[in-house]
Amino acid sequence: MQKLGIIGTNWITGQFVEAARTAEAFELTAVYSRTAAKAQQFRTDYEAGAAQDYTDLATFFIAGDFATVYIASPNSLHFEQAKQALEAGKNVIVEKPAFSNPTEMATIQAILKDRPDQFLFEAARHVHEANFKIAQAAIQALPTINGATLAYMKYSSRYDAVLAGEEPNIFSRHFSGGALQDLGVYVVYDAVSWFGAPESVDYQAEILPTGVDGKGVATLHYADFDVTLIFGKTVDSYLNSEIYSGQTTIVLDNAGTIGTVSRYENDGAQKTALGQAPLANPMVAEATIFAEIIANRDTKRYHELLQLSQTVNQVVYQLRQSAGIVFDAD
Ligand SMILES: NC(=O)c1ccc[n+]([C@@H]2O[C@H](COP(=O)([O-])OP(=O)(O)OC[C@H]3O[C@@H](n4cnc5c(N)ncnc54)[C@H](OP(=O)(O)O)[C@@H]3O)[C@@H](O)[C@H]2O)c1
To answer: A Gene Ontology MF term for this entry (predicted)?
Structure first.
């Protein structure tokens, strides 16, 4: 197993560490937290007693015994932390959305160009899962595309704090938060993976008092069709997602966490289930693939993922500009 350091001690890091262990991909050897007690608690909770703790980021990178760092800090911190990691010779797995804008992305790409032996992955977990690939194959088999509606809306427990007049990181412009950054990025990943980069975009966002979007509807315009994206963090949606091709429709239960994939034909008379039961931990697939790419130095697959990440970053930024949302990072 490859040695892993982590930044951020929230539940998502725990889920990744468990996934990495299940996949026999990475073992946790170094923990960075701003507070020693949290680092220690994390190791206890996730049974990584032998890992070393660090509360100073520079020391973590210099002295930490690991080749790859998983970064799950607030979005606005990803750029500086990833940059520091690359400069310290580490591989990086950075949570989505990897970077706040194309300027940050370009800086990272330039560093990577000078360091061809290192890898940087955006942890867009769903694109590595079996049902995403099953959906992709079903979409590629369609004779033509007439559009799509992709939805991912989930009420955030942290929205309660916004309603109470507070500004949690994920709803803050200081931390590059908002619905587009947090959940919209999944459906942008879907659209870019399945249909390519759009010709133009627009986003009608509901802006919260904190200055970021709570939910909204975006349209990606392609040469022959439009894709509607519906995403948000202030309500729960149970809408299916659909990809249209004449009288055939591919139906997903959810475009961000794909539990089922079906093909409907003949006025709905013929329904074919295509998907698989998802793995219990949705991060196992990405942990497996990142470790494989690093171990096999699979630069072809790696560059495809990096290109996808860059296009998604560009589209998310264009959508954000269309809604007039500005971050400190800009
Ligand atoms: N892939 C997925 O399914 C998924 C799910 C959830 C979140 N995420 C992503 O994971 C990342 C973290 O999300 P989150 O909701 O866990 O964020 P968060 O709770 O705001 O922060 C995550 C961690 O970062 C550190 N941190 C918090 N505030 C900080 C600050 N002001 N300065 C420096 N460090 C700070 C904390 O660790 P310490 O106190 O130990 O330093 C905290 O545990 C985001 O990029 C998010 O998009 C992905």
So the answer is: nucleotide binding
Query: Would the CB of 3 count as within 6 Å of ligand 1?
Result: no
Residue pLDDT, tens place only, 256-307: 999 999 999 989 899 999 999 999 999 999 999 999 999 999 999 999 999 9
Closest residue (by CA) to atom 42 of ligand 1?
A: 8
In this structure, the residue with its CA closest to atom 37 of ligand 1 is 8
**Cβ of 12 below 6 Å from ligand 1:** yes
Atom of ligand 1 minimally distant from the CA of 94: 45
Confirm or reject: Cβ of 36 under 6 Å from ligand 1: no
105: left (phi over 0), alpha (psi -120 to 50) or beta: alpha
Check: CB of residue 261 under 8 Å from CB of residue 243: no
Would residue 220 be called left, alpha or beta, if left means φ above 0 and alpha means ψ between -120 and 50 degrees? beta
Domains of the chain: 2-123 (3.40.50.720), 127-283+313-323 (3.30.360.10)
